[in-house]
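F.,

This is the one I mentioned.
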């Protein structure tokens, strides 16, 4: 799909690592950006491109949260935009594209473990916090957030 000059599409796990590693695991071993389930058929990776350059990514994993009472849910992970491209609406663009794809599969509920600094971004994209904040070793405070795909 083309939105103005940006192209949005499904990408491979390997492509997503090109943004995941520098943005989400900077200075850490490359393997730390590989997530369990990345290569499952039920997992989807999405990218936003400008002139064939990948600028931002997100991934959705089929995974139910223990505190959410819905049949099939997807978990958003690896939401990242290259540092110099942040704050220009690209996060919203790739996230909306990904959510529409997940919704087209008949999925109604998506959730994520959001870094504290990113909660405002998710609230702006209609996610709500549930439960108590918690710590992820080496990364910091996180909030569980969910969204009903209408
Ligand atoms: C969080 C992130 C994915 C948002 O993507 P983005 O393209 O920068 O965001 P958008 O331009 O679509 O939306 C901007 C809003 O996001 C929020 N935001 C959160 N972190 C931000 C950041 N580092 N830079 C800019 N905006 C950020 C702000 O509320 C901003 O709205 P405002 O300008 O009115 O304050 C991106 O900034 C990023 O990759 N950050 C570093 C990695 C990260 O924290 N990922 C989330 C892990 S849970």
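My design for it:
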């Amino acid at each position: 799909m083309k939105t103005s000059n940006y192209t949005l599409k499904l990408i491979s796990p390997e492509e997503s690592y090109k943004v995941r590693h520098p943005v989400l695991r900077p200075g850490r071993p490359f393997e730390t950006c590989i997530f369990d389930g990345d290569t499952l058929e039920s997992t989807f990776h999405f990218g936003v491109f400008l002139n064939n350059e990948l600028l931002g990514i997100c991934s959705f994993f089929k995974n139910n949260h223990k505190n959410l009472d819905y049949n099939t849910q997807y978990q958003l992970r690896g939401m990242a935009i290259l540092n110099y491209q942040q704050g220009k609406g690209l996060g919203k663009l790739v996230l909306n594209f990904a959510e529409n794809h997940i919704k087209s599969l008949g999925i109604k509920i998506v959730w994520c473990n959001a870094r504290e600094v990113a909660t405002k971004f998710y609230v702006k994209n209609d996610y709500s916090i549930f439960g108590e904040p918690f710590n992820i070793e080496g990364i910091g405070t996180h909030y569980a957030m969910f969204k009903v795909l209408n």
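Residues 90-104 form the longest helix (15 residues).

Talk soon.
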